[in-house]
Request: fold
Amino acid sequence: MASNTAGSQVVHRNGNELTVDYEFNDRGRGPKTHTVMHLDARGVPESVEITGNDYLKQPIEEHFDTTNGVASWKNTSESGHGNAGAYYPTMYGPPEEVGVLAKALLAAGGSLPVLPSGTVAIRKTGEADLHGTHVTAYELSGLGLQPFEIWLDDHQNFFASVSAWSSTIREGFEADAKQLIEQEEARGHARTAELAKKYTHTPAGNRIVVTNARIFDPRTMKLSEPTTIVVEGNRIASVGTPTERNAAELIDAQGKVVLPGLWDMHQHFSEIDGLLDIASGVTSARDLGNDSDTVMDLKQKFESGAAIGPRISLAGLVDGRGPYKGPTNILADNEEEAKKAIDFFAGRHYEGLKIYSSIKPELVPFMAKYAHSKGMRVSGHIPAFMTASQAVDAGYDEIQHVNMLLLNFMPDVKDTRTPARFTEVAKRAADLDLNSPEVQAFFAKLKAHNTVSDPTLVAFEGMFTARNGSVSPSYAMVADRFPAQLRRGLLTGGLPVPDGMDERYRASFQKMLDMVKALRDHGIRIVAGTDDFAGFALDRELELYVKAGIPAPEVLSIATLRPAQILKREQNLGTIEAGKLADFIIVNGDPTQNISDIRHVATVVKDGKIFNPKELWTELGIAPE
Reply:
C-alpha cells in the first residue's frame, strides 16, 4: 500500500488443489483468510472453502460446491444456488482467485457465465519484460462498474494486480509495480478520453438557454418562480432576463428545480469516481489524500475536459511512521520532515494539509502554523494521544469524521491509530450527554475558533448499522440498480458486533446524528463529505443530515454554497448568478421538500458542458432511474 509492504499472499499448488493464505494490515484493519480451492478440468473451481476474518475483522466463512449439476454457495452474507459450470466469484476470496478466473477464461475462449448472474470476459491489453520474466496484461470486464486489469506470467499464473493505491505483486518484483501501473494508467487514460469525447455534450453555439427553471438560492434557501438561465461559454451570462434563443442549446426545465452543482468535501479520487460524481450532480469535490502524481493528473484531465469529473480541490495527507501509518509516502516525524512535506504540497498548489493519525502531537502546532504561512487550510484526523480540543488549540481549521469529535470525551481511548477509534465509539457514544457542561464547552470552543466539521456520517452508518446478509442501509434505495456482483458486496455488513451490543451500536450511530444536529444548532459549520462510494454516498449523507433534524433547504445550502465559501470559491461557484461558472443541475422533484429527490438528477451542466446522467449510468452498468 502506497509502495510499502503491507501483507502477503502465499499460494501452494498440489495438482488441482490451491491453498491460499492472504492477509494485509491497513491501519489495524485488513483481512486474514485461508482458502482451499479445487479446480475442475477447465480450471474452474468446483469447490471453495474460505475461513478467517474480513477487512473490518468480522469472522467469515464461505463454502462453494457443485453436486449433481447444481452449484451451491453459502457465506457469512448470502446463500444461493445455480447451474454447475458457471464461475463463482467468491465474496471473501484472495487476489489469486482473479488469476484463476483469468486462466479459466483464456481456456474457455474468452468468456464464462458467472454466478449468480452475468458474464465475465477477458482480452489481452499489454505485456512487459521484468528482469527476464515476461508478463502479459489482461482486462476483465463484467465484474464491476468498469473493466480492470491483471498480469499473468507465461504459464498463465497470477503475477500482479496493481494500482497507485495498493498492489499485489510477486515477491522480488515489488519495485516493478510502478512500471506496470504506468502501463495500465496509459490504457486507462485512453479509455477515459474516449468516454469524455462520447458523453460530454458541447452546446450548440457554445451557448445554453434553460427556460422554466425554478432556481434554488442557497443564501435565502428559497426557490424562484420559473425563470431563464443563459450560459455563454463556461459562464452564466444572465438569470431572469429574456434573451434571444438563436444559436443556443435550448433546455426546457419544465418547472423542475435547478440547483448549483453539488460538492463532496471528502473523497479519494480514481477515474471512475469522476463519472459517478458527475452522474450524481457533484460538480466540485475535495480530495483528502491520494498519490500526488495520480490525483494531479486527474485534476488536470477533469479541468481540461479530457476526462469526465468534477472540479477538484486538493489537500495533502501527511502521517508519521509506525505500524498504523496511513496510505501515504509523505511522512514526518520531526519539524524538518514536516516542513519538507508541507513545502512539497504547497509547491504543487495544494490548498490544504491533512494531518493523519500517527503524527506526533507535539508536531501539530508547528505543522499548522507553517501550513497557514503557506496559505493552506489545516484539517485531519486527531492524532493518537491527542484530543480534538487540543487539535483545535493547535491550529486545526477543520476536523474530519464525527467519531473524532466523540473521542474527545473518551480520554482513556488514547491510541486512536487503531480500530478502537471506531469500535470504542460504537460501544460508548450512546451514553454521551450532549447537554453536559463538558460537551457544551467543547461546542463553544469549536464556534470560537470557527472550526469546521466534515462528519462523513454515511461511512459510519455502514460501520455501525449494516449487518451481514442485509443490504447496507446507506445504499438500500439504489442497490437494485447495481450489477449483481456489486450488489453482493453490499451484503457484507460493518464492524463486528459483540453479542448483546446490536442496539447499542445503533444507538451510538444515532448519537452521531444528534452530534451533527447539535453542531449546527451551535453555529458550527458542517460540510458534506463522504469518504465512501462516489456520488451515491453524497445523496445518503444529505439524507442523514435531514434525518438528524436539519431542514432540507439548509442541507442543500451545506452541499452547494458553504463549501464554496470555505474554500474561497464563492466568487465563481455556489450559487446560480450572472458571471459565475456554469455549474448547475436540473432535478426531477423538489429536494427542498423531500431531500431524497436529490437522487433524481436529470441534467448536469459543468463548465458550460452538458451531461446526461442516464448515459453515464448505462455506461457504468448501473440501471438508469
